[in-house]
């Protein structure tokens, strides 16, 4: 079995996807509208990306900026359309008014996701209690990853939390993989890898020209090389 660390890259379109795979990405997170921090892409965008690359795709289910579920019926329609197009991995995560996980929204989506693997995204960094959220979500079908910076402020601030959670891997609520993203820098990688964290997520870091420019294969390759070092 390979010990290769997982590198996930945000892709907005097929051009991004091809560039990310060429640079060494293992998986893509598909989103639209990064001005709103990443929303659900269209069925057509998913289809174009799926036709362009052969690495796993995790598709965002998020209707608006923020961490409330909003219109759950709209989320269900999007999920159904994407599933019909062949999507089988997702990214989602909603908080209720108390800062806990919105279990009603997650349970409403469960029949459509039907056991698909999914990531609970950075809503965890805004939760009232990370530990309580993890334990409440424990055992949900398909949940295998938390995308987190350890803090709403980013990895620099959240690094102690990430290391502490990595040390608890295997405890109830701490079985899912930690996927580190949010202000992540290459200089963070050695301490994360030493702690056993083997998955990272990049967005802006793959685009030296900013979000108005496409993914750079060379930038992705730099992260690939640093992870493999």
UniProtKB/TrEMBL annotation:
It holds the Pfam family CutC. SUPFAM superfamilies: CutC-like. One of its GO terms (molecular function) is copper ion binding. Belongs to the CutC family. This is Copper homeostasis protein cutC homolog. It comes from Streptomyces hundungensis.
